[in-house]
Amino acid sequence: MALHDTPRPAPFGAITVFRLIRLVNDTIETLQRWKIARQTDATLRQLTDQQLHDIGLSRGWIEEVSVQVSARR
């Protein structure tokens, strides 16, 4: 006797609910990354040029570093 699996469709609306939850989750993650980038940028801009030099940065790199830091999370 052979066993034959028949795929069952997802319950009505399950895919829509899944996509909505994923959209909300993606939005929250994007906002968190934006907040981290903004905080990093503000903190680095408060440093003096000598302090930035001590950590191997210049003022021109602040924005790029802020974006990279937020992307790692």
What does this structure look like?
By secondary structure, the protein is an all-alpha fold. The protein has one domain. About 65% of the residues lie in helices and about 0% in strands. The chain has three helices and no strands. The chain has helices at about 15-45, 50-55, 60-70. The termini are far apart.
Give a brief outline of the structure.
The protein has helices at residues 14-46, 49-54, 62-71. With 73 residues, it is an all-alpha fold. It has one domain (19-71).
Shape: rod-shaped
- What is the percentage of strand-forming residues? under 5%
Calculate Rg over CA atoms.
23 Å
Q: The biggest beta sheet, please?
A: none
Number of strands: 0
How many separate helices?
Answer: 3
Class computed from helices, strands and strand pairing: mainly alpha
Averaged pLDDT, please?
89
CA distance, first residue to last residue: 52 Å
Give the ordered list of helices and strands. HHH
- Provide the low-confidence segments as ranges: none
The count of domains is: 1
Percent helix, as a range, is 55-70%
Topology record:
Blueprint: H1 14-46, H2 49-54, H3 62-71
Helix pairs in contact: 1-3
Question: Could you name the key traits of this structure?
Answer:
single chain, 73 residues, mainly alpha, 3 helices, rod-shaped
